[in-house]
Design goal:
The chain is of the alpha/beta class and 433 residues long. The protein contains 10 helices and 22 strands. The strands form 5 sheets. Strands 4-3-5-6-7-8-9-15-14 form a 9-stranded mixed β-sheet, with helices on both faces. A 5-stranded antiparallel β-sheet has the order 11-10-12-13-16. Helix 4 crosses helix 5 and helix 7 packs parallel to helix 8. The chain binds 5'-O-[hydroxy(phenylacetyl)phosphoryl]adenosine.
């Protein structure tokens, strides 16, 4: 692990880490019990006080917290400090209903910058590097989160934000950044723009891409690495917990993301029952903040599906496997669970297709159908389309176990991402009651 931002942490023993986590947990529980009626009520109902938590395993006695519960306290119901101590708010990217506002004290902003600085260092960024931030700036945590982390590491930040893709390419060419931080699907849009301008992105100054905010497959990693000539690594996070920088993959190993466990305590639970699962088993990630002041969360259900793996020789922090998808993104197609990343993994491996696709869900009679709309690669002969479509049908049947229709569309016909991309178009009506 690089020295910056991780000073002393690589040598931390498991015992020291667990002791630190327990101290952080107990302090967090005392803080929320004293200041947040929502949590006071929950502990009272269980007949518990914070000091009853004597061990990290006792955390599992507390109830899980859901997004709806955060919504129900909108906007400031979960603050554990007076509003005047809040230095900044962000809001999570809710698709419907009231958004959830999250709040940071001065110290929370500093913690956040620290975990993002660590993340950039683990990805291969170094002080003095130029970092091009093309995550959106604003209420979304991506832009400002990446920005202050890069500054904390001692990098020079290009705060490009999302959109205006031709200008993104110009900035990269002129300012020559080593690092780019952006969603993987917007990176594809930027790569297309390079090529549209007759430039080879593999010859750009970029060496590392730090991609997150949406699920992406190993095939997407291979596609981006080959076209951009960079190392593509995964950064994970969510607004409710802090933003980007909850977990980060190392550029050296690219084998799962180290959870910065001294600040965020991970558990995996069975998504159906909420019961804790042992490390190594797949389920839903649940996170508890250990050091946050403004809006700590206790056992927050992320809906993200993954599993926990042991730390490595580089760091004691457990790793989480690349997130395959959210439980709420899972499509149930004629009884088979399908994640958009599984389709991505197939589509990106079939020659003659561009890495741009959408999933169209419809209902014919009582049967749900899925059509994969995928663009032809502009360099492929027109006749290739039919063959490629048949190959996708066969590979999806083989890998996922379900039959889909595939329609190969013309280059440039599908919407491009400028941030988080929504791949699914759902034309099924609500089921008849
Ligand atoms: O997306 C924070 C972020 C910004 C992370 C930039 C990484 C980079 P939200 O808008 O609250 O926050 O969305 C959080 O996005 O629960 C996951 O479902 C998804 N997500 C975030 N990172 C990844 C990732 C930001 N690396 C939600 N892989 C999370 C898969 C991810 N999904």
């Amino acid at each position: 692990m690089p020295e910056t931002g991780l000073a002393g942490l690589a040598e931390l023993t498991q015992e020291e880490l667990r002791a630190r986590q327990l101290a952080g947990l107990r302090q967090t529980l005392r803080r929320v019990y004293a200041n947040v009626p929502f949590y006071t009520g929950r502990l009272d109902k269980l007949g518990m006080v914070p000091d009853d938590v004597q061990d990290l395993a006792d955390l599992a006695r507390l109830p899980l917290t859901t997004k709806d519960e955060l919504r129900s306290t909108y906007p400031f119901g979960l603050l554990a400090v007076p509003r005047e101590r809040v230095r900044r708010v962000h809001a999570s990217s809710g698709t419907s209903g009231a958004p959830t506002v999250v709040a940071y004290t001065e110290r929370d902003l500093s913690t956040w910058a620290e975990v993002v600085a660590r993340s950039i260092a683990a990805a291969g960024g170094r002080p003095g590097h130029l970092v091009h931030v093309a995550y959106g700036y604003g209420l979304f945590t991506g832009g400002l989160g990446a920005h202050y982390g890069a500054e904390r590491l001692g990098c020079t930040v290009i705060p490009a934000s999302g959109g205006r893709t031709s200008r993104q390419v110009q900035l990269i060419n002129d300012l020559r950044p080593e690092v780019i931080m952006v969603t993987p699907t917007y990176m594809l849009t930027i790569l297309d723009e390079f090529e549209r301008q007759g430039l080879d992105p593999a010859r750009s100054s970029l060496k590392v891409g730090i991609f997150g905010a949406e699920p992406w497959s190993e095939a997407m990693r291979a596609e981006i690495e080959a076209r951009a000539g960079i190392d593509a690594v995964d950064i994970y996070g969510l607004s409710e917990v802090i933003g980007p920088g909850v977990a980060q993959e190392s550029a050296e190993t690219k084998d799962g993301l180290h959870v910065w466990e001294d600040h965020f305590y991970p558990e995996i639970v069975d998504p159906a029952t909420g019961e804790p699962l042992p490390d190594g088993e797949r389920g839903e990630l649940v996170l508890t903040t250990l050091t946050k002041e403004g809006m700590p969360v206790i056992r927050y259900r992320t809906r993200d599906l993954t599993r926990l793996l042991p730390g490595t020789a580089h760091a004691p922090f457990r790793r989480m496997e690349k997130v395959t998808g959210r439980s709420d993104d899972m499509i149930i197609l004629r009884g088979v669970n399908v994640f958009p990343t599984q389709i991505e993994d197939v589509v990106l491996r079939v020659p003659g297709l561009a890495p741009h696709f959408q999933l169209l869900l419809a209902r014919e009679g009582r049967m749900d159908t899925m059509t994969v709309l995928v663009e032809a690669d502009p360099g492929a002969p027109a006749a290739r389309g039919r063959e490629a479509a048949a190959e996708v049908v066969a590979a999806v049947k083989d890998a996922v176990g379900v039959t889909v229709a595939v329609e190969v569309t013309g280059p440039g016909s599908l919407a491009r991402s400028e941030g988080k991309l929504s791949r699914v178009i759902d034309r099924r009506e609500a089921p008849q009651m």
